[in-house]
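ok so i was messing around last nite and threw this chain in just to see what happens. nothing serious, just curious
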Amino acid sequence: MPTIDVSRFTFHVSDIWRALDAVMDPEIPVVSMVEMGIVRDVKIENDVVIVTMTPTFAGCPALDVMRNAIVEKLRELGIENVAVKTVLSPPWTSDWISEPARAKLKAFGLAPPPLHGGNIALYFDALVACPYCNSTNTRVTNTFGPTLCRAIYFCRDCHQPFEQFKAL
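result:
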């Protein structure tokens, strides 16, 4: 397994993954970029840690924030040579969100997207469960939420508005 020596410490790729799991998504602070499937790969080549990421959208406004957070976290460990590589192919999909992250999204009040396995047509007919009361007696009030990846819903049972992370 590749390692990198920094001062008196040796880091394995698994150590770097653990550190990156503490880098939270800048728009949804209850989940990490690792849990969201944004951080795709970690490699050590020579004395450089290369982190590959795929943003949820190609034009994601938080792209620089995410890159900087990755570099900052690894520099906190003492790793100076960090390269963050952004790849857009394959494009990010909400199916990459881990199961623990889906539970965290729901606890945060954000309905997680359904798993669609690449068949996005399934999403359009899917019922959306309220993250507060689990009722599917919900309706979309706006297909555009505060970010491109969210829609706004209303629960007819508990009368709570909520957001759903769109299936992408």
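not much to say yet. DSSP finds four helices and nine strands in the chain.
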